[in-house]
Design brief:
There is one protein chain. With about 325 residues, the protein is α+β, with helices and mostly antiparallel strands. It folds into two domains: about 190 residues, no CATH class; about 130 residues, no CATH class. Helices cover about 45% and strands about 20% of the residues. A nine-stranded mixed beta sheet has the order 4-8-5-9-3-2-10-1-11, with helices on both faces. The protein has a two-stranded antiparallel ribbon with strand order 6-7. It is elongated and about 105 Å long.
């Protein structure tokens, strides 16, 4: 669960940021077309004077309203083909991005795009973390001349956040631009491999535990039935019905097993949730895995009950009476 949180399991989308300086023109087009990529946009900081003079800077997003809506959780008041200020209640207002001030953005062909901060704005609620949480300006991509990109900017891609999709997109980007650095926003790539290994080990361990546990239950039921053969024979001679004997046999096996498994499930769930609340990666009661554990416990009880039924036979063996 903690590795899931590192991989932004709580966010429905995943972003991938790549600097334009490391991408060729054909690579920019190919990365946008990678399978599982749902949307793309550009981010860039305004130009800084290389002479070292104090130059106010701001961050901008180059995207249409449709692209902006895909990257953020909520967007209100967006107008196409118009520069807008971005307001996010989770971030303080940029004191440098005052209405009327102009900011130059350096383009890949050496020219500068001067953008004036307008009075109108768009209200957004960005996912956390995100490349779209913090920028102050929304600039339409149509303002950039065809064939050019922000020289100091990044290409940002968007996909679903499940680990399989993230791995597929990273593989696709690696095939298109193997030398470009890729930053999956908010996650650690190494944790994806760790998550796969840990899940595989957990799956193998649970399957082995289930097989060994069921085998142990069957063996214990058979051993208990063999010990009670003389008693069952005596009860059969006294007129006890086979259904009653089988019912008692099942009850003697299932009842203590149900108490033990029920206690184990409750104790394990309390331990896991208590760890998450007191010192783990999230503060919440985890109900997600509980139905699976209950279903597994019920399956074990069912197997044990079915295994105990054939152990009670109607055949009366005189040898058992003589032994008794």
């Amino acid at each position: 669960m903690e590795l899931d949180q590192v991989n932004r399991a709580t966010s429905p989308v995943q972003e991938y940021s790549m600097p334009f300086a490391q991408l060729r023109i054909h690579q920019q087009k190919d990365t946008v077309s990678v399978a599982q990529v749902q949307a793309h946009a550009m981010t860039s900081a305004s130009w800084r004077d290389p002479s070292g003079a104090r130059t106010p800077r701001t961050m901008a997003v180059f995207a249409t309203c449709q692209q902006l809506g895909r990257f953020v959780e909520k967007a209100e008041g967006c107008v196409e083909n118009k520069v807008l200020r971005i307001r996010d209640r989770n971030f303080s207002i940029d004191s440098d991005a005052n209405p009327g001030r102009s900011f130059p953005f350096l383009l890949s062909d050496g020219r500068k795009l001067d953008v004036t901060v307008p009075d109108s704005s768009v209200s957004v609620r960005a996912y956390q973390p995100s490349s779209f949480s913090g920028p102050s300006l929304l600039i339409p991509p149509s303002m950039i001349p065809r064939g050019t990109v922000p020289a100091e900017g990044n290409l940002v891609l968007l996909s679903d956040s499940d680990p399989e999709t993230v791995r597929a997109v990273l593989d696709g980007i690696g095939a298109v631009a193997p030398t470009s650095s890729v930053e999956p926003v908010g996650i650690v790539i190494d944790s994806l491999a760790q998550l796969t290994v840990i899940r595989s080990l957990l799956a193998v361990g649970m399957v082995l535990g289930l097989v060994i546990g069921v085998a142990a239950f069957v063996v214990s039921v058979a051993d208990r039935a063999l010990e009670r053969r003389a008693q069952v024979t005596a009860l059969a001679l006294l007129g006890a019905r086979a259904g009653t004997l089988r019912g008692v046999q099942v009850l003697q096996v299932v009842l203590p097993l149900a108490v033990g498994l029920g206690g184990a499930v409750v104790a394990g769930w309390l331990a896991e949730s208590s760890y998450l609340i007191t010192g783990g990666g999230a503060v919440h009661w985890d109900w997600e895995g509980l139905p699976l554990l209950v279903a597994a416990a019920l399956g074990v009880l069912l197997v044990a009950a079915l295994a105990s039924v054939p152990m009670v036979r109607r055949h009366i063996d005189p040898e058992h009476i003589r032994r008794d």
